[in-house]
């Protein structure tokens, strides 16, 4: 996943486009785009051996602005506004009900005029 992002020039280290084999050092700033947010990570230290996912936060500092996460929440809410998740495509009966509802409103407006 990260290799593909590097090949597409979506990852930068200290403002320079990074290749997958790029070495990083402490105090380097890594910038990448994921889920419509530009994440900024600062490398605090390099571990001697591989570490588990729970221990990764010891070696990095997340400097992504809070506004970016708020923007992501707004995007999620706007997507949910149009259609509830998991409901899928409307059935034929649902479409007929929606059409009938729209026709009732038009008829009521015609009667008022």
Q: What does this protein look like?
A:
- The chain is an alpha+beta fold and 113 residues long.
- The chain has a single domain (2-112), classed as Structural Genomics Hypothetical 15.5 Kd Protein In mrcA-pckA Intergenic Region, Chain A (Roll), CATH 3.10.290.10.
- 39% of the residues lie in helices and 19% in strands.
- The chain contains three helices and five strands.
- Strands 2-1-3-4-5 form a five-stranded antiparallel sheet.
- Strand 1 (11-13) and strand 2 form a beta hairpin.
- The chain starts with a helix and ends with a helix.
- 3% of the residues are buried.
- The model has no long low-confidence stretch (mean pLDDT 82).
Features:
39% helix, Structural Genomics Hypothetical 15.5 Kd Protein In mrcA-pckA Intergenic Region, Chain A, alpha+beta, five-stranded antiparallel β-sheet
Q: The CATH topology is what?
A: Structural Genomics Hypothetical 15.5 Kd Protein In mrcA-pckA Intergenic Region, Chain A
Strand order of the largest sheet: 2-1-3-4-5
For the record, the CATH class is: Alpha Beta
Structural class: alpha+beta
* Mean pLDDT across every amino acid position: 82
Q: Write the element-wise H/E pattern from the N-terminal end onward.
A: HEEEEEHH
What's a concise summary of this model?
By secondary structure, this protein is α+β, with helices and mostly antiparallel strands.
Give me the secondary-structure topology.
Elements: H1 2-7, E1 11-13, E2 16-17, E3 29-34, E4 37-43, E5 60-62, H2 66-82, H3 92-112
């Amino acid at each position: 996943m990260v290799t593909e992002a590097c090949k597409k020039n979506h990852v930068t280290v200290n403002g320079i486009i990074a290749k997958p084999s790029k070495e990083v050092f402490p105090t380097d700033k890594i910038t990448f785009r994921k889920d419509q947010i530009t994440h900024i990570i600062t490398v605090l230290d390099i571990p001697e051996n591989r570490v588990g996912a729970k221990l990764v936060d010891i070696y990095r500092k997340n400097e992504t602005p809070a506004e970016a996460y708020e923007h992501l929440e707004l995007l999620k809410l706007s997507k949910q506004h149009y259609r509830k998740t998991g409901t899928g495509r409307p059935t034929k009966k649902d479409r007929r009900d929606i059409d009938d509802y729209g026709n009732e409103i038009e008829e009521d407006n015609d009667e008022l005029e």
